[in-house]
Design a protein that fits this description.
One of its GO terms (biological process) is glutathione metabolic process. One of its GO terms (molecular function) is metal ion binding. The chain is 28% helix and 22% strand. With 446 residues, the chain is α/β, with parallel strands linked by helices. Helix 3 packs across helix 5. The N and C termini lie far apart (51 Å).
């Protein structure tokens, strides 16, 4: 038996291949959008992919389960509670998949969502591993509030939190302490609030180090779980629905986005230009209604936060190579079909400026300072006493709250979010006030 872990570092996502060495068969768990790494692993092992298990309908990435089924004939296993729209086999309490000496047991572990399952792996009759999806993370558990688009969301959130309390204690904590825990996410994921950087653990270690497994009442657990959760990107409900019906093939959908030879033509106020270039280059010249979401580790998260899934957008980059990379990354959250046009940008009529730290230090009252960090960051430490706090995910809706009688300075914690935030404000305000990005110079004020 072999267990292979795959990582998408941009979405802090882990997926898995379970190989039966005697039968040369593979079961995948929670695969990402691009199936090629799994095909390559199967080729290297001389094995066939015979099944795909989804621990739930994911909110933060799009899975390739349907594409793998179409390509290989592999069965897709999901909980009956997912209400999946594709051909599948139900996999719930009492259900079993046998693969040589491997037995995979389904455990219904609702809490993150009602359709959440965990998969217990036995080998040679011994409990070996638990694939926990978004139920148990290393150091944390899955948040219960990602179905916010549903009616009675607050009630549902508390109901799910109570289910999580019971799932952990009745299904997870009763397993042997030496069972290895393999989660679907690590540090950086918005599916929890305090995930560890570790990519695996054991039941025993989590009983000691994970806050959610300590001795407490249900009420104490619920209060802690639902408090101070991070924001919910706009694309999360969209991906839940897309995963429930199954996405188009990655290999067809990505090449369908063609690179245009004309810069900006057809991009107008009805479609934002998502400019992925470095902020220094962007500020030297860009198109109207551009938002600077730089190529970086959290591109997907901020793209799916700033651009809603009911919008289209143009994608601008420095080179064709960069654009091709970013189209593939856009597809990982199912946004490639929203791309109206993709093109290389070499110049633009608009410029933005960074504000030297010395100018802000000399006279802070001369400026309106906008803090686009998350509310939890501001509560922990406000950097400028008189700043206006509008988290970046809310900026497009709330920019009218910002007075325009003085120049505006935008800051975050390190410079990535302020590049996006300042570009949004400059586009929305259309010259009503000068907009500056403090950028990395924020470090001078901490």
């Amino acid at each position: 038996m072999k267990i292979q872990q795959f990582e998408d570092k941009y979405l802090s996502h882990y997926s898995y291949a379970i190989l039966s060495e005697c039968e040369r068969k593979i079961i995948l768990i929670d695969p990402s959008r691009n199936p090629e790494p799994y095909y390559e692993y199967a080729r290297q092992e001389g094995a066939a992919i015979t099944g795909v298990i989804e621990t739930h309908s994911h909110a933060d990435f799009v899975s390739c389960h349907l594409e793998i089924h179409r390509t290989t004939g592999a069965a897709i296993y999901v909980s009956r509670l997912m209400n999946a729209k594709f051909e599948h086999k139900t996999f719930d309490d009492g259900d079993l998949i046998e693969l040589g000496k491997i037995k995979l047991h389904a455990l219904n572990t609702p809490g993150h969502s009602n359709d959440s399952i965990s998969i217990l792996l036995e080998h040679d009759g011994k409990q070996k591993a638990l694939f926990t999806g978004d139920t148990l993370f290393i150091g944390d558990v899955g948040r219960p509030d990602l179905r916010e688009s549903q009616k009675n969301a607050a009630v549902l959130r508390e109901e799910l939190a109570k289910k999580m309390f019971r799932s952990l204690r009745e299904k997870v904590m009763i397993l042997n302490d030496n069972v290895v825990v393999y989660p679907a996410h690590g540090a950086g994921s918005l599916c929890g609030k305090s995930l560890s950087k570790a990519n695996s653990s054991t039941i025993g270690r989590e009983k000691v180090g994970n806050w959610a497994l300590r001795d407490m009442t249900e009420d104490e657990f619920v209060k802690e779980l639902i408090s101070n959760q991070p924001f919910i990107p706009a694309y999360f409900p969209y991906d839940v629905e897309l995963n429930m019906k199954g996405a188009d093939n990655f290999g067809d959908s990505v090449p369908a986005v063609k690179l245009s030879q004309t810069q900006g033509e057809g991009c107008d106020r009805t479609a934002w230009v998502v400019d992925v270039r470095a902020e220094e280059i962007f500020k030297e010249g860009h198109l109207p209604y551009s938002v600077n979401i730089m190529e970086g580790e959290k591109f997907e998260t901020w793209l799916g936060t700033i651009i809603r899934p009911d919008e289209s957008f143009c994608l601008a980059g420095e080179t064709a190579e960069q654009l091709n990379r970013m189209i593939r990354r856009t597809a990982s959250i199912g946004y490639e079909k929203l791309i109206k046009k993709a093109f290389v940008i070499t110049e633009g009529p608009l410029k933005n400026q960074k504000l030297p730290a010395i100018e802000l230090k000399d006279d802070q009252e001369k400026y309106t300072i906008v803090d686009v960090r998350n509310a939890s960051e501001v509560n922990e430490k406000k950097i400028f006493t008189n700043s206006i706090s509008i988290p970046l995910p809310e900026l497009r809706k709330r920019f009218t709250e910002i007075p325009v009688d003085k120049p505006i300075v935008v800051h975050c914690a390190a410079g990535y979010r302020s590049a996006a935030g300042s570009s949004i404000l400059a586009a929305e305000l259309q010259g009503k006030a000068e907009v500056y990005d403090l950028g990395e110079a924020i470090s001078d004020f901490k």
